[in-house]
Amino acid sequence: MKILLASLLTILTLTSFAQTQFITAGRVEYEKTYNQHSVLDDEHDEGDWIQQMRKEYPKFVRDVYELQFANNKSSFKLAKENPDNKYLWRGKPSTADVTVKDCETNRIALQKEVFETQYLLQDSMRNYQWRITDETRTIAGFECKKAVTKICDSVYVVAFYTDQIMISSGPESFGGLPGLILGLAVPRLHTTWFATKLELIQPTAIQTTPPQKGKKTTWQQLEADLTKLKARWGDYGTKYLWNFML
pTM of the full predicted structure? Predict the structure, then answer.
């Protein structure tokens, strides 16, 4: 009898442990890091004003973002701006930007400020062509697998996802992997997003309700609008386009 009870207790314990390994609702904090001196590195002439900018502005700026998820929906936005940051031209984050994904219906609602215009993108989630590798990395206590893809035909993106968090989402518009993206890097934009902690909470309906304000657009129309802006900004315009299409 004792052996039987011990065996049952072991089975129940393992079952309970297995159940706790798969998370369907919660809140993840990410630290977004941007190397803003990369803008200065693009300058062909390292004049006195460039050197002065390097001295006055920190090389890296870091801000905290949050992704809340439940019922196969997620919401990603700025959680808190770092008061110690001193931003160069495009580094300052917008408190108006929010990305809501419905992974059941494969729909995305994205509210984004593009210079003086606030857009409201409502469209299908993008179909990223991910290539999953054998490389792994531990992020915020979760073992993550590495996957790579490209945006805008040539911009390389590296992601680390965990299948222990059962939602196919991630920072910005990224998703489409068999689990939540906890680490993301876009080397050509000198930007990374890495999860720092997970809270097991149940987001409210309001927090995952799609945004409603802005100039309505689609992925195709937004890219067309940004391509027009790119012509005005030259080399900088290309990177602006990549950033706004994340």
Answer: 0.86
